[in-house]
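Researcher: Hi, I'm a grad student and pretty new to this. My advisor asked me to get structures for two proteins we've been looking at. I'm not sure of the right format, so I'll just paste the first sequence and hope you can take it from there.
Model: That works fine. Here's the first sequence with its structure tokens right after it:
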Amino acid sequence: MPPSLFPLLMLLASAAPAQDAAQASDPVQACREWIQGRAWSAQEDDPQTRVVSAGAACFDGAIAAGALEALHAWIDAAAGTARPVLVVRSRGGDSETALGLAEKLQERGASVHVVGVCASACASYLYAGVRDRHVQQASLLLFHGGFSAGNRARALAALEAHVAGPQGASVPEPEANRRAIGQSLDALQVRQDAFYRRAGVDPRIVHGFDGLDVASLDDALCGGPSQAPRRFLYFDDVQMARLGIAPASGRTEQDPRRVNAAIAALDGGFIACRAPRAPFAGARAQEGGAVR
């Protein structure tokens, strides 16, 4: 065996492949049952991939460095599959890690199916970045931005606060660090926005968060008065269609009270609000061109 194949085979073997013929014939249902059989509390500490077949895989867990290695191995090996299928439930996580996998899913023309919850980097990249996207009925699809001017400013402000604090002396060459962080985030924003345009998605799903004061939103958009932090926004059917992220099948939960009751049932410790129209207005992007 060529040495280069061994790590790939080991990753695929460690991803708990399913052998049942019924699972292979209906991989989406097989993944739903597997995901729903796992505790939500395992998201952070035990992210797992299950490879159902050469063309289908499931992922349940937070998105972090190393957590998606088995999915990368699977999608790389599925290059000859007509339309690879990924079924996912995730609270989100690292944006750059999610973007890297999402670019491969997009390139392969993959189909992504959401089970129950897809938040943060899961919603912004794994779901939004493909054209064939689906949601289980009443799933939560929660967004809170990505690589943008506002994100860049917050990252640099955090660096400045650290440099000015008691640990500031531990930062070597602060100016070089400022330049490196700024250049890295600028490059990621360009890469992200091109990724969205290829999928016909309006990058305002990220940039619309810049300058938005979530605390000032009408309580009615957030399910009523609450002391819980407002961490996420979600879009209604009209907004999703305009932004180019409407699901091909299924419908997300969009009633503010039911959304936040579902979050509370997961012990989220936060609430989500329905996105206001103005910051996210506009038509979907054209492939290879500017947003209309």
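Researcher: Oh nice, that was easy. Here's the second one.
Model: And its structure:
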Amino acid sequence: MRVLTFNCNGIRAAARKGFFAWLRRADPDIVCLQETKAQEHQLPPEALDLDDYHYAFVDAEKKGYSGVALYAKRKPDAIVRGLGPGFEDLDKEGRFVRFDFGTFTVASLYVPSGTMGPPRQAVKVSFYERFLPKLATLRKEKRSYVICGDFNVAHKEIDIYDPVRLAGVTGFQPYERAWLDTIVELGFKDAMRVVDKAPKRFTWWSGWPKAFERNLGWRLDYQWVTPDIAKDRSVSGHLSRRPFFRSRARHDRLRLGA
């Protein structure tokens, strides 16, 4: 089984640049999308014409903002749209969707970035405080989890191009990194780092001239898995910088099983 996650920064723009044609060729089993930036009635035909997939979209109330989606070849036993009670404000922003298959769950999550100033950073901190107890509850369930998404945090120094100069910048602040440490303490594993410990494996580059070519990036996107998946010797992972659908030109792939 191959699980792919991709922040598309606008599903309509990604479609115009060939994302869905590429997706047909790549043929993953599950696809998690973030920042779709379209309500369901605005989706391009390519997003709905994938006959081999079942899909669910969770849109933001605000047009052209946020939004997540899931595609899966196998029909899910259950679909959960939104994070539920206690997250009403964030559910209005379209940040979470999950599919359940027996005792296996995959989710697509888009964490607030906090880059638009103190009010939005406060939203990000509020999300942190509320989401950790939810993760702790999930870990108590007898389920296997793959939680994919844009977490808007570079975890370790190897996950950012200049850890000294950027130490106080939103997305690499100590308390943000510590939040990811707590996810690890809860028992979740960073699937990419289970199979690839190399530095500078980035997933986002700014619009600075030559930032992509010079690999001046951040790793903000993750696939967090439960230990039963992480210790499976057949697990492999891949982070692709091409094809170039957007400045965040990466697709994190997790392979489970043969």
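Researcher: Is there anything I should tell my advisor about the second?
Model: You could mention this: The two ends are 8 Å apart (CA to CA).
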